Amino acid sequence: MTPVVDIWVYLTDEPLLWLTATVLAYAVGDRAFRASGRKTYVNPVLIAMLLLGAVLLATGTTYEVYFDGAQFVHFLLGPATVALAVPLYTNRSHILRTALPMLAALVAGGLTAMLTGLGVGWALGLRGEVLLSLAPKSATSPIAIGVAEAIGGIPSLTAALVILTGILGAVIVTPLYDALGVRDYRARGFATGASASGIGTARAFQVDPVAGAFAGIAMGLNALFTALATPLVVGWLF
Amino acid sequence: MLHAIAILLACQLAGQVTVTALGLALPGPVLGMALLAGLMLAFPALHEVVRGLAEGLLAHLSLLFVPAGVGVVAHLHLLGENGIALLAALVVSTLAGLTVSVLVFAGVLRLVEPRS
């Protein structure tokens, strides 16, 4: 019989182990989400990332080794982003009729997130490249990382802030909008995609297909807005 | 299924190549999304071809963020001494952004769509 250590060495050489672990951890998170009666704070992404983080720590596995397997899941983000064209197309009449509210919400919400982030960070003593890393965090990761580089932020810090913003947004959006009394799924979806990018959009699809379609278009528009507006705002402030 | 995979990947590839060639400040897949939307408007038959795969991918969109999320957990110590200030800025700005954008959307919607 092969010793356990040898099996472990064999498995850690193959991408299959961490690929399987990623899907299993997410299945556990999804099961917990459904079992809770779809409670917003039982977020499947958050559960899966905490579970896997604990497993990596316990087994002394580096993130690089983990990502060798998990990259196959990560890669699908590209095709999934392209796939957002389908709900966009299905809801095209809705979307064309709301061009004006979308544009207004995009600019107002985008500037608010950017300025409050920089303002609170500055007030709490953040300066320089750490402070600038906050500016593009509401955009989808590839854009946020590129913008962070361009304005003198720290790209890896921005990448982490994008994920944390997405998780936080996905967790608080439903109770927040219920408290604000906004029931329109076009407004709720759009604001979620514009503020919490991909993870927010994933949450919107859990709630309602129209909300998901509007979140998808908001994520795309906010990518464009962040790329254009962040260098201008940062240049004007600093 | 096969055709749907080919179409999604081809749109992503076309988006990626265009972004790189023109030096655009956009992710390639976002341009690919715009391209696929345009193609479906021009050739409505495409919609039925890609619909099943697209809906399947989007139903599990959350799963696709897990690898990047684990990266945050693994690199949490990098937030370091600035952790509290960064988290405070993140919480305030996310709440403010979510609130302002939903209220502005709903407010302007009421102006252009008075009956709703």
TrEMBL record, chain A:
Membrane-spanning segments: 16-33, 45-66, 72-90, 102-124, 157-177, 213-237
Pfam families the record matches: LrgB
Keyword flag Protein biosynthesis: no
UniProt keywords, alphabetically: Membrane, Transmembrane, Transmembrane helix
Chief place of localization: membrane
Lipid bilayer topology: Multi-pass membrane protein
Localization: Membrane
Gene Ontology CC: one annotated term: membrane
Entry superkingdom: Bacteria
Protein name: Murein hydrolase (TIGR00659 family)
From TrEMBL, chain B:
Cross-referenced InterPro entries: LrgA/CidA (IPR005538)
Highest taxon in the source lineage: Bacteria
Record's subcellular location: Cell membrane
Cellular component, GO annotation: plasma membrane
Pfam annotation, one family: LrgA
Keyword line: Cell membrane, Membrane, Transmembrane, Transmembrane helix
Listed transmembrane segments: 31-50, 57-78, 84-112
Topological category with respect to the lipid bilayer: Multi-pass membrane protein
Protein name, entry field: CidA/LrgA family protein
Taxonomic path: Bacteria, Pseudomonadati, Pseudomonadota, Alphaproteobacteria, Rhodobacterales
